[in-house]
Specification:
This protein has nine helices and 15 strands. With about 350 residues, the protein is of the alpha+beta class. The strands form three sheets. Strands 2, 3, 4, 5, 6, 7, 9, 10 and 15 form a nine-stranded mixed beta sheet that branches. A four-stranded antiparallel beta sheet has the order 12-13-11-14. A two-stranded antiparallel sheet has the order 1-8.
Length: about 350
C-alpha cells in the first residue's frame, strides 16, 4: 500500500468471470479454476465536502436508483427495493476501505454494469472490487492487488455471511487463476497461462435463488449427509487438479469431459435446476464438448465448450429458453481509467 495525492474523481473497473471448475467445493478448501471475461463493472467515485455517501446505480438490470446514506438514515429514491442487494456491496466496500485505511470522507459513487446482477458472472465481486479500488484511490492510497482482492472478499463476506475468495481474486487479477482456501482468512492465488483459447458460449436464465441461499443449501446437505457430501467435495477437488493439467496441455476434448463430470457432481449437491439442465443438454446435443453451470447455480449461467461450433450451440441454447452472451475470455483485471470507455 502506498500513499498518493487524492483525486476528486476516480473511475475504476473490474471484469466478470466464469468458474471453469470447482464452484461450491472452493468454500470447503478445495481449489477452483476461474477465468475473467470481457464484460465489466465501472465505478466512479467523487469525494464530497460532507460526510454523506450517495450511491447512484444504473444498468444493474433494474431501473436507475439513487440511494443516500446519512448516518443510520437511508434515503432511497426508487420503488425497487431489490436493488438494495447490489447497493449493499457498494456501501460495504466504502465501510471496509474506510476502516482499513483509518480515514473516511463523504463520496458520490456511480456504478454501471455490463452484466446482469445475480447471473453467476461475479457481478457482486466486480462491484465490490471496483469500488474498493476507486474509493481507495480517491482517498489518495495506491493499494496492491492482494490488498484489493482481500478487501473485496471482506465485502462479500460482510454481505453474504459466507463467501470464497474466488470471485474477488479473479476480478482483481484477471486472466485465469487457481484459487484455494488454506484455512481461516488465508488463501492462495496461482495465475495460470492456458495453452489455448477457450471457445465458450455463455447461456443465461433468470436466477431463482441467491448465492447466499445456495451456499447454505450445500452446507445443510453436508450437515445431514457428511460422509457423502464431503466425498463429493473432495472428488471435485481432484477433478480441478486434473482440469488444471488438461488446460495447460490444451486438450479440449478431455476438458469437455471433465466439465460434464463436474456438472454431475454439482447436480448431486442440488444446486442445478431444470432450466439450467435444459441449456446444458441442448448445448451438448448441438455439439458442445462439455457444458456446466458456472457460479452458485439456482439459475444464472451455463458455459459450453464449443470449438468450431459456437454459433450452433448458441442457437440451441436460445431455443431452449436461454439468453446467450459472446465475450472474450481472460480479460484484464481491476484497473483505473482516465475516462470511462464507451461500450456497445
Amino acid at each position: 500500500m502506498g500513499y498518493l495525492m487524492g483525486s476528486n474523481k476516480i473511475i475504476a473497473s473490474a471484469p466478470g468471470k466464469v468458474t471453469l471448475f470447482g464452484e461450491h467445493a472452493v468454500v470447503y478448501g478445495e481449489p477452483a479454476l476461474v477465468m475473467s471475461i470481457g464484460k465489466r463493472v465501472y465505478v466512479t467515485t467523487e469525494l464530497r465536502n460532507d460526510n454523506l455517501v450517495k450511491i447512484v446505480a444504473s444498468d444493474l438490470q433494474l431501473p436507475g436508483v439513487s440511494v443516500t446514506f446519512s448516518g443510520d438514515e437511508l434515503i432511497i429514491e426508487t420503488d425497487y427495493g431489490k436493488t438494495l442487494s447490489a447497493v449493499a456491496y457498494l456501501r460495504g466496500a466504502i465501510d471496509i476501505v474506510s476502516k482499513y485505511l483509518g480515514i473516511f470522507k463523504g463520496v458520490n459513487v456511480f456504478v454501471r454494469s455490463e452484466m446482469p446482477v445475480g447471473a453467476g458472472l461475479g457481478t457482486s465481486a466486480a462491484v465490490a472490487v471496483a469500488t474498493v479500488l476507486a474509493y481507495s484511490k480517491a482517498l489518495g492510497y495506491d493499494l496492491e492487488k492482494r490488498e484489493i482482492a482481500r478487501l473485496g472478499w471482506e465485502v462479500e463476506k460482510s454481505v453474504q455471511g459466507i463467501a470464497s475468495p474466488m470471485d474477488t481474486s479473479i476480478t482483481t487479477y484477471g486472466g485465469v487463476i487457481k484459487v484455494k482456501l488454506l484455512g481461516g482468512n488465508n488463501y492462495e492465488v496461482k495465475e495460470l497461462q492456458a495453452s489455448t483459447s477457450l471457445p465458450i458460449v455463455i447461456g443465461y436464465v433468470e436466477r431463482e435463488a441467491r448465492t447466499k441461499d445456495l451456499i447454505m443449501k450445500v452446507k445443510d446437505l453436508m450437515s445431514r449427509h457428511p460422509d457423502l457430501v464431503s466425498n463429493i467435495i473432495k472428488i471435485i477437488g481432484i477433478l480441478v487438479e486434473k482440469a488444471e493439467k488438461t488446460l495447460m496441455e490444451g486438450n479440449l476434448m478431455l476438458l469437455g469431459e471433465l466439465m460434464n463430470i463436474n456438472q454431475g457432481l454439482l447436480d448431486a449437491l442440488g444446486v442445478s435446476n431444470k432450466r439450467l439442465s435444459d441449456l446444458i443438454y441442448a448445448a451438448r446435443t448441438a455439439g458442445a464438448l462439455g457444458s456446466k453451470i458456472t457460479g452458485a447455480g439456482g439459475g444464472g449461467c451455463v458455459i459450453a465448450l464449443a470449438p468450431n461450433n459456437q454459433e450452433g450451440v448458441e442457437v440451441a441454447m436460445r431455443l431452449s429458453g436461454g439468453l446467450t452472451m459472446r465475450t472474450s475470455l481472460g480479460g484484464t483485471g481491476a484497473m483505473v481509467h482516465s475516462h470511462e470507455p464507451h461500450t456497445s
